Amino acid sequence: MQNTTKVGLRTPTIIQAALPLLALIVMLALSVYFYGEDSSYGPNQIALWVAAGVALAIGFYNKVSWEQIEDGIKEGISVALGALLIILAVGSLIGTWLLAGTVPSMIYFGLELLNPSWFYAATALICAIISLAIGSSWTTAATIGVALMGVAAGMDLSPAITAGAVVSGAYFGDKMSPLSDTTNLAPAVAGTELFAHIRYMAYTAGPAFIITLIIFVLLGFNADSSVSLLELERMQLELSNTFNIGWVMLVPLLVLLYLAATRKPALPTVFFGALLGGVWALIFQPEMVNKLAGDDTSIVGAVKVVWTALSDGVTIETGSADLDDLLSGGGMSSMLNTVWLILSAMTFGAIMEKLGLLQRLISGMLGYVKSLGSLIAATLFTCFGANVLTADQYMAIVLPGRMYREEFERRGLDPRVLSRTLEDSATLTSALIPWNTCGAFMMGALGVSPWIYAPFAFFNWITPLMALFYAYTGIRILRLPAAKTAA
Questions:
Q1: Are 379 and 421 in contact (CB under 8 A)?
Q2: Where is the Na+/H+ antiporter NhaC-like C-terminal domain (predicted)?
Q3: How far apart are CA 48 and CA 341, in angstroms?
Q4: Secondary structure of 367-414 in the HEC alphabet?
Q5: pTM for the complete prediction?
Q6: In a 3-state reduction of DSSP, which class is residue 180?
Q7: What distance in Å separates the CA atoms of residue 443 and residue 450, rounded to the nearest whole number?
Q8: Which of 3, 181, 242, 407 has the fewest beta carbons under 10 Å from its own?
Q9: How far apart are CA 158 and CA 156, in angstroms?
Q10: Higher pLDDT among residues 261 and 216, named by residue
């Protein structure tokens, strides 16, 4: 990544670099205070634009031209374009999978198999296995995660804790999967080998996930589920009366998992899954399609229903208000707020990077790094800060990785120490930030804001703490052979 600290005629000061961040913190705090759970539906976007305006003013003061800044914004937004397209495709997938009976069938079987007392732990474990197999926390959350959120609603369990369990499991599997893009990116940036990186991550991720499962088991035992078996049976009956329920409805899910596991590109895979859901709706849910088509029962009317599900989602009426809310939604249009949030965040991050303000903040931290523990702590904090400022986990891996790599080498540390540290923070904390691409995606897919589920995404918090523990105790900290000899 190019050094942008010399853009303009004046080098930015540390105070100038901190001002936009302070403005963002104040604006986001006010946003949450004034609007609460609705802060991500417009107010946070405005907060990001105001903070970007503060950074822009500093850039003009430092004699940076608008043309340079505009080019930086375009470059920054282009980083997120792939993610934005996938987000839109996931919206379509949710819409057609609701219409096809895929999500309702997963909910139906989930109600049949899961018990409230161990539901949270099972949710984390199921998501971990799926994500490990396909290497995608996003796909896991948008498919199995959506269904498990539905099961939780059916059992009258906490949506916040369930979303935290989905995120915890999905990110454990993503982090440990050789199919994951971030798991490949981190060792590439640090200069180590993929499978050596994965084996080394097990020392932090393994214990953290075990602790996470124990916490979810304890929460499950204390869960206040007011839903009786008769209530669960009633919901299953309403599902079966509304949709044709069966294992064949899960074929779109199995196809999607196969394509993901065989490392097919994410965007065409997800959109193909959405189109397959539409075909499945026409074949297996003709009654529902005809009901939504109204008076037009022709093939054209049926195709229009599927078309609408892809674009605007579906509105299902089962006779139960809870199920209606659960089974209605989806469509590309449902993701437009998420796209708005990501574009706003990437604009702010791009301006900060182009003006050299982001690197000025990070480079200032190196002066306080003395011990091994403080070096790893600074790297963890920098990755988290980059997730906040750039709103993109890839930038949060690449930028700190390149900036700290030389320091890790100078201290004789094995590259795996850096690669693991990057993943322990950059990958995992991205889902905890509402305006980050990952946090925004999880909010769009699960219907729960990161402000709400973050306290329960235990794995995403415990792993960085585990990394800090190893750093300050020296446990499992690998050194290069020459450094060991010198020591």
A1: yes
A2: 169-475
A3: 9
A4: HHCCCHHHHHHHHHHHHHHHHHHHCCHHHHHHHHHHHHHHHHHHCCEC
A5: 0.75
A6: coil
A7: 6
A8: 3
A9: 7
A10: 216
